[in-house]
Structure formats: structure tokens, C-alpha cells
What does this fold into?
Amino acid sequence: MNFESSWLSRHCPVAGEIRLHKVACGLEDAPVLLFIHGFPEFWYAWVEQLREFSRDYRCYAIDLRGFNLSSQPSAVNAYRAPLLLDDLRAVIDSVGGRVRAVIAHDWGGAVAWSLAAQSPQLMERFIVANSPHAITFAHALAYDAAQIEASQYMNWLRAEGSEALLAENDFARLVAMASLKTEEQLARYRECWSRGLTGGVNFYRASPLHPDTAQTPGHAKALAAALDPRAFHVKVPTQIIWGTGDAALRPVLLEGIETHVPNARVTRIEGASHWLLRERAAEVNRIIGDFIR
It folds into this structure.
């Protein structure tokens, strides 16, 4: 299938000009779907969904700042949530304003949860796959022992030099983490990662959501108490897709979600891993299609 590449330029107070890369496919005058990837991926994470939905929609998939062909500022504070939110608002404005649906995964979902809460007028519907709501995640990082243990990788990624370790042996750790199988996947992802990993890792370094460390005892409980649920309340009709076999993000993160997202539908894909977009693409596509149609 043919993808059209383009770039959006915008100014960032702490990083100067930021260029955001996006690809487009599908019908020119159809309703718009916006796809937002996570770590350690890029727009291609959605290729199976783009193939499916480009038949009926105008589809856009972006590279978040810090990833692949988008600008990769080195400063950690260039990845603060308000700047990432402004990126998404600018992208939506560039594709014509209010979209039929924002569809997000992992870190893309983390940013898009806030977009749905703060700028609901930009989307008719919100679909998020294996990306926890900030309030339930903060609570689990403070009080759920299994989720705290599962999230220790976040502190490893936050540490200085993690990007160099990820690049060792032709990105062997990332290949294993992302469960890449085919030669095409390996080639495309290695090409992406060779453009730089610091930006992606800086998402973790800039976020206050992480388990306690020896240097920050009590951090997680203090953050859970400090977050105002009203700032994260989502009224947009929302479809949550959750692979129950995700080793890093446990199903406990769905507990109490109806309090913060009263208009949510939760669909679990039993045994699916974090990489369900490609490993269970047919099921993911069916759930998305049912919700947006």
C-alpha cells in the first residue's frame, strides 16, 4: 500500500523548531482516524490497522517527537506532558480539526488519555490499547506489589546510559522486548532505532509516573495522593483494548476505570501480549471497527 509522508513544523519553548513526521493513506474525503504509537516503536506499529481502515477512512499515523523521523531533542524537559499534548493538538489541526477517532497504544496512549480529558472537542471517539489511565497507574505504582515489580523496567530506562545499552548487539534487547519476528519488521525497526533512542527513553525520564527508587522513597504514594482525578476525567466515548498477557502492564490497571472514564467500554483479549497490534491484529481491528462504525 502507498503511504504519503509529510512533516509538521512547530516551535517548542525548550527545543526550538520541532518537526513531526506523519504518514497518510486512505480516502481523501473520508472521516479521519489518527494513530499514535508507543515505545520503542514508530508509525509502522499500526501497519496492520492502516491496511484495514484505509479502505473506508483517511488514516494518519505519526512519529511522536523523539522517535524515528520526527525531531529528537536531547533535553529531558522537551518531553514534558504539556509539550507532547500540544504536538497532538497541532497534528489534529493540520489534518482538518476534529477527527472521527484517536487510536493510541502504550506511550501514545499515555499522552492521548490526557488529550481526551483536556481537549475532548478534538475527537468523536477515543480508542486506547494497553496504556493505563494516569490515576489507576499511579495508584498501582504506589500500592500493588505485582505492578510495582512489573514496572521496574521504567527505572532501568530512566537511568543514564540506558539508550547505549539498548543499542548494543544490533539492538538485541529491543528486538527481544518488542517481540519482532519477520525480516521486514527487523529491518524497519532497526532502521528506526538507528536514528536515535534518547528521545524515546526521555519519555520515561520526563514522567513522574514510575516506581520508587532508593533515591526517591515514598515518591509513588506521594504522587498518587497529589494527582487530581478531575484533570484526568474522560467523557469522550472510549474503547479500551487490553491484552491480558502484557507482562509490564497488568490487568489490575483496569480496576476502577469506570470512575474516571464513565463512558468506557473495556474489551480484553485473553493472553495477548503488549504487542497485540500486530500479534492479534485481526481481533484488534474488529474491536476498533465495531466501535468507530
